[in-house]
Amino acid sequence: AMMMKVVLFFALIALVCCQRQLQGQEYTITYFGENTCSPESAITERTFILGECYDLQYNSLNTECDQSLECLFAPADDFDANVLCPRQFSVDAITVLPDIGIVLEVNPTGCNTNSVPEHIEFGFGECRQSPNYEGCFSKIRLDGPRETASPASALAVPAVLFLALLGLFL
């Protein structure tokens, strides 16, 4: 029984650590105008939160990268934006492969749709042709967790862990 408690104890710690790693963690995709992804060809970048699905607008008729990227920040519910950027797809980072890259779930029609999503392993340092932003190439990087995390939520996990451990050894 004691062995089981020890195993549970480590499982709890692993669960809390891994969960904290994903929560509020951000990643950034930088878009470049040329296929070398050289810093001087960087046009813009957008930051996302891991584990959150984002609907992104695009226009498949655009051929120039800077023109394509006008849709990157277009709000999905804006009429004018929908005229200029009529197509939508979604991106959701589902897994971080430490030191390797991020696994993205890309849905061709958007977050809450029935289309079959594609899983793409996007390596850190890799320069990829952007599938929906014509003429663009992109790189991905992992950023730190959001600084806006409230102190209360930072304390909540150790408190829960402490209570759980107390329960295990009583």
What helical percentage do the residues reach? 25-40%
Give the strand order of the largest sheet, numbering strands 1, 2, ... along the chain: 2-1-8-7
Number of helices: 4
Q: SS-based structural class?
A: alpha+beta
Q: What percent of residues are in strands?
A: 25-35%
Assign an overall shape.
globular
What is the gyration radius calculated from CA atoms? 20 Å
Biggest β-sheet description: 4 strands, antiparallel
What distance separates the N and C termini? 12 Å
Helix and strand pattern: HEEEHHEEEEEH
Overall pLDDT level? 82
Q: How many β-strand stretches? A: 8
Low-confidence segments, ≥5 residues, pLDDT <50?
A: 14-21, 148-155
What does this structure look like?
With 170 residues, the protein is α+β, with helices and mostly antiparallel strands. Helix content is 29%, strand content 33%. The chain is built from four helices and eight strands. It has a four-stranded antiparallel sheet with strand order 2-1-8-7, with no helix packed on it. Strands 3-4-5-6 form a four-stranded antiparallel sheet. Helix 1 (2-22) runs antiparallel to helix 4. The longest helix has 21 residues, at 2-22. The radius of gyration is 20 Å and the shape is globular. Residues 14-21 and 148-155 have low confidence and may be disordered.
